[in-house]
């Protein structure tokens, strides 16, 4: 096994310290106070230049209880919905985090952007491609920052994948296999918002599939998707005998399950690249396989994780030739130091808002991610390959 210092040195991280200007406090609101909002408020509390001033939830009293639980006082929550909060000019909101269920993402984001407010939008971007386009039109009109919640790409190990590809070490990329899965992991501990069609719209595809796609698409520069042949199923989620339903005493969830718990697709991208994708909330397997990126000069293997959460499962390996010999170079895992990925997600968003710089996870990239999810769902429904047509923004 080769561990050439020259190869590894080319990918070393350049650490820089960011100085935060606390003279200007960012006035932030939170739309939707379910479980993912817990991570947002914890990160906002870690930022010295943030003042959390408002919150809204469709369930009466939920927002008030949420801020009380997190020890944040003086927050206005007496709103019937997000629109009433956004219309309250006394708040002088700078930014909002949108933490609603999937089907509310587009509506809330459009309203916030139209109100002239920066938006941190939780993943997935939206449920459909058309919704994503409408959000981007509002973004373009507003001139405000819209960043999508893909914090895994802020992991140095994820960034290493992009550095390796951009270095040319792999040559011309022509085939990628990616995905992830859980043997049993349909997300129902917080109720049914993830599994009902009326709230989620998409299942494993949107929840963890978008992360898997972003890992490789970001690495190769987000080429445009051209065609998609997709498949999706729901054998586990619709079974009242599914183990987690039985364990938690909720066999009735099976009747409410209206999304996918498994999906797969064969995707053609611009540049002659083929993407073989699979994702699962539940399956009779420990993993659908490692992620591999094949190029004309080398191949990269990215180990899978037992329970996919947008991370690298172990040291990556580059399979290539050195001086005519076939060798394998191991890329050690980079230890996680400093702020959490969620803190980095919030910090980079705030910096973009304050400095007038591009969004850390721009909608222009995630539009292609959403186009693929949308095309997989459509292809699976009609049972044949579809061409990806992206409307003008």
Walk me through this protein's architecture.
With 393 residues, the chain is an alpha/beta fold. The protein folds into 2 domains: 26-152 and 342-359, 3-Layer(aba) Sandwich (Rossmann fold), CATH 3.40.50; 153-334 and 370-380, 2-Layer Sandwich (Dihydrodipicolinate Reductase, domain 2). It is 32% helix and 22% strand. The protein has helices at 5-9, 35-45, 62-69, 82-86, 105-114, 129-142, 156-167, 204-219, 243-248, 253-256, 341-355, 363-382, and strands at 26-31, 50-56, 95-98, 118-122, 146-149, 173-181, 225-233, 262-269, 273-280, 291-295, 298-302, 316-322, 325-331, 386-387. The chain has a 9-stranded mixed beta sheet with strand order 13-12-11-10-6-9-8-7-14, covered by helices on one side. A 5-stranded parallel beta sheet has the order 2-1-3-4-5, with helices on both faces. It is globular. The model is unreliable at 1-15 (pLDDT under 50).
Outline:
The protein has about 400 residues and is of the alpha/beta class. The chain has twelve helices and 14 strands.
**Which topology of the largest domain does CATH recognise?**
Dihydrodipicolinate Reductase, domain 2
Low-confidence stretches: 1-15
Distance between the termini: 49 Å
CATH architecture grouping of the largest domain: 2-Layer Sandwich
Q: Order of helices and strands, N to C?
A: HEHEHHEHEHEHEHEHHEEEEEEHHE
CATH superfamily of the largest domain: Dihydrodipicolinate Reductase, domain 2
Rg over alpha carbons: 21 Å
């Amino acid at each position: 096994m080769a561990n050439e210092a020259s190869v590894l040195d080319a990918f070393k991280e350049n650490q820089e310290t960011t100085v935060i200007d606390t003279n200007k406090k960012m006035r932030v609101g939170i739309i939707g106070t379910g479980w993912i909002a817990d991570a947002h408020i914890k990160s906002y509390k870690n930022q010295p230049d943030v003042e959390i001033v408002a919150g809204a939830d469709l369930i009466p009293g939920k927002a008030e209880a949420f801020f009380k639980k997190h020890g944040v006082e003086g927050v206005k929550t007496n709103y019937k919905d997000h629109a009433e909060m956004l219309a309250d000019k006394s708040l002088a909101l700078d930014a909002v985090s949108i933490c609603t269920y999937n089907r509310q993402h587009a509506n809330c984001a459009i309203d916030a952007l139209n109100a002239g407010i920066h938006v941190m939008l939780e993943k997935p971007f939206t449920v459909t491609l058309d919704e994503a386009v409408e959000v981007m039109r509002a973004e373009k009109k507003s001139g405000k920052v819209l960043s999508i919640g893909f914090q895994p790409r802020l992991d140095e190990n994820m960034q290493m994948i992009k550095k390796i590809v951009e270095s040319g070490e792999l040559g011309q990329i022509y085939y990628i296999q990616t995905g992830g899965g859980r043997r049993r992991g349909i997300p129902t501990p917080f109720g049914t918002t993830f599994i009902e069609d009326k709230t989620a719209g998409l299942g494993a595809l949107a929840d963890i599939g978008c992360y898997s796609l972003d890992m490789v698409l970001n690495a190769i520069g987000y080429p445009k998707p051209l065609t998609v042949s997709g498949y999706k199923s729901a054998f586990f989620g619709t079974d009242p005998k599914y183990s987690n339903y039985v364990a938690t005493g909720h066999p009735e969830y099976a009747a409410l399950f209206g999304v996918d718990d498994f999906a797969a697709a064969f995707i053609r991208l611009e540049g002659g690249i083929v993407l073989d994708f699979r994702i699962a909330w539940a399956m009779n397997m420990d993993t659908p396989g490692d992620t591999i990126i094949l190029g004309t000069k080398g191949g990269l293997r990215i180990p899978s994780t037992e329970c996919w959460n947008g991370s690298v499962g172990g040291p990556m390996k580059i399979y290539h030739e050195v001086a005519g010999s076939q060798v394998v170079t191991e890329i050690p895992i980079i230890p996680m130091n400093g702020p959490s990925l969620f803190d980095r997600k919030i910090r980079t968003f705030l910096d973009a808002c304050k400095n007038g710089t591009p969004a850390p996870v721009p909608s222009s990239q995630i539009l292609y991610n959403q186009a693929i999810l949308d095309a997989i769902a459509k292809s699976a429904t009609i049972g044949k390959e579809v061409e990806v047509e992206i409307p003008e923004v």
